[in-house]
Design a protein that fits this description.
Length: 358
C-alpha cells in the first residue's frame, strides 16, 4: 500500500464555508499554493506569505485588514505587542567554556526556569539552508527551538476572540523566553538572537522543531507532540554557541493521521487535504493557504484544527503515543516486544509542569 495515501475514504462530511466576495477581492494575484511551492519537486527556500510588512506580501491586504480588526477590539489590542522593541544584551568578551552537552544543559535549564519563562519544550537542531526564508539568511549554525503550551480550553473557543487571546499570550511568552535566552547566551560570550510569533522571523520553525525532537507533522500542518498534542506555540533562538542536536521523536502520529479525519471535517473552509502533497521537494501534509486564509482572517485567527485534533485534548497525547508505539512494535517485531521509547525535545515531565491545557 502507498503510505502517502489515506487508508479509507476521507471524503468530507460537513458543509464547506464559503468565503465572502469582499475577502476574496483582497487576496493576492498569485495563489498562496504557488508561493508555498505546491507541486515543486526540487527543494528551495520558503517564501514569506504572512506576518511581515503587508506592503511586501502578496496577500498583505488581507493581513492589514485582519490587523485593523484586531486593533479595533480592546482586549485583542491589549494582547498584541504593538511596541515590540528589544535591545539585545551585549556579547561578553570572555566565552563560557562548556562542551556541547554542557551547553545544551545550560540553555535547557535556563529556558525551563523562571528567567526563561518556564517553557515546556526545548530542543536543538543544526540549521539547514532551506529553512531560511528567501532573502533572510543568517550565518548561525544552530537553532534552539522553544515550545510554550496553550490552555486547551481557551484554544478550543476558536473561532471566538478568546482563542486568539490565548494564542497571543503564548506567543508573547515564547518571545520573552527566546529573547531572555538569547541575552543569556550573549552574556556567556556567543552570538544569539531570539524570535517569537506571530511575526515571521528569518527562519521556518516547524521543520526545525521536528528535527529538534518536538514530534511529527500532522495533517493539519502543525506539529503533534507526544505530551501536548498540537496545543503549543513555537519560539526560537539562533546562535553560534557550540551545541549538539537533539534526537527526533517519531512515535506514530503521522501514521495516526492517515486513518483520522477530524481536522479535515472540522476545518470550515475545507483547507486540510486528506492526502499528502509535494511541496518544495518534500512530500508532506500541507494546508491549502488559499482556502485557510479567508476564514483565518475573518475569524480572529482560527485554530479550530489544532484544538479539534484528538492529540490536543488534555491528557490524551501520552496515551495515544503509547498506543501507536505498541502498534508499531507489533508490526515490526514478530514477538510484539516494545521498542525503547525514543527521546523527545521535551525537557520536563508532565508532573513538573502541571496540566496547563485545561
Ligand atoms: S485531527 Fe490531528 S490526528 Fe486527526 S488527521 Fe488531523 S492532525 Fe492528524
Ligand atoms: S486554521 Fe482554521 S481555516 Fe486554517 S486550516 Fe485550521 S481549521 Fe482550517
Amino acid at each position: 500500500m502507498d503510505a502517502s495515501r489515506p487508508r479509507r475514504s476521507m471524503e468530507r462530511r460537513t458543509p464547506v464555508w464559503q468565503a465572502p466576495r469582499a475577502v476574496l477581492d483582497l487576496m493576492g494575484d498569485t495563489p498562496g499554493k504557488a508561493l508555498n511551492g505546491w507541486g515543486e519537486t526540487t527543494e528551495r527556500p520558503p517564501t514569506v506569505v504572512m506576518w511581515a510588512r503587508p506592503d511586501r506580501l502578496v496577500h498583505g491586504r488581507v493581513q492589514a485588514t485582519m490587523t485593523e480588526e484586531f486593533l479595533a477590539h480592546p482586549e485583542l489590542r491589549a494582547s498584541l505587542r504593538t511596541d515590540d522593541r528589544h535591545d539585545p544584551a551585549p556579547i561578553a568578551e570572555q566565552r563560557c567554556d562548556l562542551d556541547p552537552a554542557g551547553w545544551v544543559e545550560e540553555v535547557t535549564n535556563f529556558a525551563t526556569g523562571p528567567a526563561g519563562e518556564s517553557v515546556e519544550l526545548v530542543g536543538v537542531a543544526a540549521i539547514r539552508p532551506n529553512w531560511w526564508f528567501e532573502g533572510r539568511e543568517r550565518d548561525y549554525p544552530w537553532i534552539i527551538v522553544l515550545g510554550v503550551v496553550m490552555d486547551h480550553a481557551r484554544l478550543a473557543t476558536a473561532p471566538e476572540y478568546t482563542s486568539a487571546l490565548e494564542v497571543h499570550a503564548q506567543y508573547n511568552r515564547g518571545t520573552r523566553a527566546a529573547r531572555a535566552l538569547a541575552d543569556h547566551i550573549r552574556g556567556l560570550g556567543y552570538r544569539a538572537e531570539g524570535h517569537g510569533g506571530p511575526g515571521a522571523g528569518p527562519i521556518l520553525m516547524v521543520p526545525a522543531a521536528i528535527e529538534a525532537g518536538f514530534g511529527e507533522l500532522g495533517k493539519h500542518g502543525s506539529i503533534i507532540n507526544r505530551h501536548f498534542g498540537s496545543s503549543f506555540r513555537l519560539a526560537a533562538v539562533l546562535t553560534d554557541a557550540p551545541l549538539v542536536a537533539s534526537p527526533a521523536d517519531e512515535f506514530g502520529a503521522a501514521d495516526f493521521c492517515r486513518g483520522c479525519r477530524v481536522c479535515t471535517d472540522a476545518c470550515p473552509p475545507n483547507a486540510i487535504s486528506p492526502e499528502t502533497r509535494m511541496v518544495r521537494g518534500t512530500r508532506k501534509w500541507a494546508v491549502d493557504f488559499d482556502r485557510c486564509l479567508p476564514y483565518f482572517a475573518t475569524s480572529y485567527g482560527c485554530g479550530i484544527c489544532i484544538a479539534a485534533c484528538p492529540w490536543s485534548r488534555p491528557g490524551a497525547a501520552p496515551r495515544l503515543a503509547a498506543n501507536m508505539t505498541r502498534k508499531r512494535a507489533r508490526r515490526l517485531s514478530p514477538t510484539g516486544a516494545d521498542p525503547a521509547s525514543p527521546g523527545s525535545g521535551r525537557t520536563s515531565p508532565p508532573a513538573e509542569t502541571g496540566d496547563r491545557s485545561g
